[in-house]
Design brief:
Helix content: 25-40%
Structural class: alpha+beta
Radius of gyration: 21 Å
Number of strands: 12
Distance between the termini: 27 Å
Strand order of the largest sheet: 1-8-9-5
Order of helices and strands: HEHEEEEEEEEEHHHHHHEE
DNA sequence: AGGATACCCTGACCGC
DNA sequence: TGCGGTCAGGGTATCC
């Protein structure tokens, strides 16, 4: 379920533990995830220091001190877990505990301070790769990506420009990562509900007023989810170091037959339809 | 060419 | 209790 807000939350959760640390050892426990690991992956990571972290679309980035960047995509079920524990106990004695590895723990990064980062991904829709930091935007993963939804790039005008002439539904357009990045099935539904626009509406029928509402709604929905993730970060990095996805209240997603939260809808039931093989949830009363 | 569909994969869940 | 079927969705290959 990781869309932009979840990836951003993972980035913020990991940043303090990873930046400045050196990767002491890498354990690659299989040869591929969704795609094969790049050549000499473990060797290229080992010994490098993590100098900073970033995010592009739903990709998590860790810059290394040799000019390469570790690229991580969580796919659908990927998780990054901090599982090492080391330090001085009450008696000043050094201790080191590491959680035993489990099924689907595919990549293990041991850091120089005793911390351990584990990538677990049951469905293996995720990926890990490496690219030259200076050439990231030209890397295959990023070359075709559209604009980031937060910040000034996304505006009503920019939306209108991208939507004009498109014959698809708005829902499909929002999921298209070559247009706007970071929005997945959940936040597409949520943004359209907040903007009071039908997911079935055809792109080319959009005019300025709806485009303004949609641009605003996308930003709000994503930013509120990031805030919810941020505020739950201390719960979210659990005592054992594992990172869970924060629970967030959705207005329409996965709420089929439940009342639309919008007061003026007076209990109109949320409807579920299928668009391009994916569930769409919306309120037939307020979304037009 | 661009839009729709199939597929990768496993776990959760449901009905029997 | 077990078992088969269905669904979940990010991204991309492939088809139309």
């Amino acid at each position: 379920m990781p869309e932009l807000p979840e990836v951003e939350t993972v980035k913020r959760g990991l940043e303090p533990a990873l930046v400045g640390r050196r990767i002491a050892h890498v354990d690659l426990r299989r040869k591929d995830l969704r795609i094969p690991f790049p050549a000499r992956f473990a060797e290229r990571l080992a010994g490098k220091r993590i100098t900073g972290m970033g995010r592009r679309a739903k990709y998590l980035l860790a810059d290394l001190d040799d000019g390469e960047t570790l690229i991580i995509h969580l796919g659908m079920s990927g998780r990054l877990t901090l599982s090492g524990k080391s330090g001085r106990n009450g008696e000043g004695r050094y201790y080191h505990e590491v959680r035993p590895l489990t099924r689907h723990d595919h990549v293990v990064l041991d850091l120089d301070d005793g911390e351990r980062l584990v990538f677990n991904d049951p469905r293996r829709f995720g990926l890990m790769s490496l690219a030259r930091t200076a050439e990231l935007s030209a890397a295959s993963f990023f070359r075709h990506l559209g604009i980031e939804p937060l910040g000034n790039e996304l505006s009503a005008d920019r939306l209108l420009d991208g939507l004009k002439g498109k014959k698809t539904s708005l829902k499909a357009a929002l999921l298209d990562q070559t247009f706007v990045v970071g929005i997945g099935n959940i936040y597409a539904c949520e943004a359209l509900h907040r903007a009071r626009i039908s997911p079935k509406r055809l792109c080319h029928t959009m005019k300025l007023e709806r485009a303004e509402r949609l641009a605003q709604a996308i930003k709000e929905v994503l930013m509120e989810a990031i805030e919810a993730g941020g505020s739950s970060l201390k719960d979210y990095v659990h005592a054992d170091g594992s990172l869970g996805y924060f629970q967030h209240r959705f207005a329409v997603y996965d709420r089929e037959s439940q009342p639309c939260p919008r007061k003026t809808c007076k209990g109109t039931k949320i409807r579920r339809i299928v668009q391009s093989n994916r569930s769409t949830f919306y309120c037939p009363n307020c979304q037009r």
